[in-house]
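This part of the workshop introduces the protein records we will be handling. A record pairs a protein's sequence with a compact description of its fold. As an example, a complete record with its sequence and its C-alpha cells follows.

_____
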Amino acid sequence: MLNQIKGLHHVTSMAEDARTNNKFFTDTLGLRRVKKTVNFDAPDVYHLYYGDEIGTPGTIMTYFPFPKMARGRPGTGEVGNTVFSVPEGAIGYWTERLGQHGVEALKTDESFGQKRLHFAGPDGDGFALVEVKDDKRLPWTHNGVDAEHAIRGFHSVAMRLRDEGATAELLKYMGYEVVDTHEGIKRLAIPGGNGADYVDLETMPNINRALPGAGSVHHVAFAVENRAKQLEVRKALMDTGYQVTPVIDRDYFWAIYFRTPGGVLFEVATNEPGFNRDEDTAHLGEALKLPEQHAHLRGLIEQHLEPLEG
C-alpha cells in the first residue's frame, strides 16, 4: 500500500464559455483565479485555475473552456459531484447567495452526518457545499465572501461507477481507507491528508456510461509532496499493472496520468513548484502565462482568446 498520497490536488473540468466560467468561480463562489494559461495540447483554449490565495493543493478547481462545446451527458465512469468545504452554519448564507446569483438546482440535504447544499454550475456541473467543523485551511476573502462563510477548498469528489469494487481496491492501494457507508455510497478517506481527504463511490449498475462534454470532469488529481514521491507512486502503479504516462511538466506541478478500472482518469500531481513560480503572489492569475513551447505563438493566442473580464 502506498503512503505518498496526501489527498486531492485539483479537479479539472470542461466548460463552454470562458467568461461565464470565470465569473461563476470568482464572483459567485468567491474563489481566486490563481492562473490564466492555456491548454498544453490546444493552446487556443484557456486553462483557468481557481482556488485559495496561492492555489494550495486541495483547493484548485481548473477548467478547459472549449468554445461552443456541447454539454456532457451524466452517467457512470465519471466524477459526478465535486464537493467544497465551508464552515458550520454557512449553508443558509450560501443558499441565499447562490439563489441571488441565479444558480440552478439548489437542494439541501444531509449525508454522513453533514449538511450539504447541492447546486449546478453554468454547464450543469454537479457541485455541493458541505459544512465541516474546524477546517483550518485559510479562505480567499477578496471576492465578496467573508471568512465566516468562504470556501476552504475541496472536501471530496463523488464518482459514479457501474461497479465500485476495483476502484475501491485501487484507492485502498493508494492509501485510502473505507470510513463509512451511507445509502449505498462508500466513503474512503486518506489519513493525515491535506483537508481534501475524501472520495465517495456510488454504484449505479443500470445507468449508461457518461458522455464527456461541457460540465464534465476531465480528471481528478491526487497530491504528492514532490517528484521523488511521485516516481515512487508511478513505479508502484506500473508494478501493479497500470499503464501510467511518463512524468509531464505542467509548469506549476509535475503530473502522471492513468485510467482507473471504473473509467475515471486519475492524475498524481506534485505540490511543487506552485503557482507563484512565474507570478508574484499579489498578482496571481492576472497575466496570460504561456508554456515555453507555445511562447512564440503569444500574438496569435492573445488575438484568439476572448477577454475574461469586461
Q: What stands out?
A: Residues 21 and 197 are 26 Å apart (CA to CA). Helices lie at 18-28, 91-100, 165-173, 227-239, 298-304. The first strand starts at residue 8 and ends at 15. The domain at 8-304 is CATH 3.10.180.10 (2,3-Dihydroxybiphenyl 1,2-Dioxygenase; domain 1).
